[in-house]
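A favour, since you know our structure tokens better than I do. Just paste the record in under my message, thanks.
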Amino acid sequence: MTENHAPDILSCIANLSSDEVFTPPKVANAMLDLLPQELFANPKTTFLDPCCKSGVFLREIAKRLLVGLADKIPDLQRRIDHIFHNQLFGLALTDLTGLTSRRSVYCSKDASGKYSVSFFKNPQGHIRYTRCEHDFQNGKCRQCGASQSEYDRGEELETHAYSFIHSDKVFNDMQFDVIIGNPPYQLSDGGSAGGAIPIYQKFVKQAICMNPRYLTMIIPSRWFAGGRGLEEFRKEMLSDSSLKVLVDYPKSRECFQGVDIAGGVCYFLRENGYAGTCEVTSKIGDKSISRQRKLDEFGIFIRDNIGIDIVHKIKNKFQKSFAEQVLPVSPFGLRSFIRGQKEKFKDALTLISSAGESFLLASEVKKGKEFIGKYKVSVGYLNPDRAGVNNASDGKSSVTTKVRILRPNEVITETYIILGCFDSLTEAENCSCYVKTKFFRYLVLLTLSSMHITKSNFQFVPVQDFSKPWTDAELYEKYGLNDEEIALIESMIRPME
């Protein structure tokens, strides 16, 4: 006999495709599990969700408080009234999410109505929605960066000027013990290509300014790499010793079913007064890998927890970084659009560009003339996986384009980068052999945050003796990699011809 099961409506909502990503109850409870559980047995603990959508956080907190306070407030109705009037507070993102959240928490969209499990004089109860307006200046909102052309709307439409980051007071400047939520991720920037600017970092920063004992939010993981509007936020987060826990989902679908968010998602716990390392957990399928880490140890954030172990092993035997021999961008000062002559002529240099081979005068080379007579190892400056060149579905990365050895009197445009210059063909061939190893390309992959490969992306790669060729097996043995670490590299990096 099949057991009848009525699914949780908030689980169903969380699976809907929407501009607003709703939090599944399972994820909300995982975040609540990070908190000291004695908070739910204290009748004075206060909670704020500043970005209510479905009300799932407040609902799940209420369920825990109802159990935790049973001994202190035995009467059920008195306990419910105490919790909803004194401990739970929310700010809705829109009028509609306010109604939805009240229905989830109070069992009625009208907190002053007869169906509300706790009576309030105000229909909104303590889950409030206040319409705010953007403060536009030069076409952008000064608070959130929203485009005036997109969000300067009439009263009949939502402004998406969220009260938490657009108003000065939150519940009359109450001090909250816990702030928790899933903020909006982005807003349109008004660009013609449908571009958007991140906004979740503003919720995090505002919450920190309110100085709660505990802060936990779920946000996109793109801040790991910085980039558009996130560079300052990335530095602040990585250097924040109050970050106690960071849980990372490289694939967002493993957290939000059916939702693809580029770069994955993460949630964190920040504890006011904590000063120590952060427990970083990577969630990949059914597997969880955790490490205690100093987030800003290398200036960039290495997402892969096994990867951090590999880097540490290499650093212990580090003599010289490969980055030191990589030439700066545009090594010969030849722009990507430069094309030489089709026909070869006397004393001509061979030019390698995206269009193939052509020929030019040595006098046309703007810089790096001392490298013209060398053997040079080169790859394209674009990461083929991020640039959409590779379409393989095996989940593995190439990291670089195919390696090319440039002979004396051969030069390149800025479309390519030079990984090393050598006096002999043998050294160049052995370096090329090293670049093709999965070991080499995995260490580059750890640093990639965009489609462009630069000198800094080789900072974890150690230089080798190029009087001999190198294999992955030799490199794994040299740096003492274990079976798990080797398996990780082999599973992530595609062989190169």
Remarks:
- The radius of gyration is 28 Å.
- Residues 12-18 have pLDDT under 50 and may be disordered.
- The CA atoms of residues 35 and 160 lie 30 Å apart.
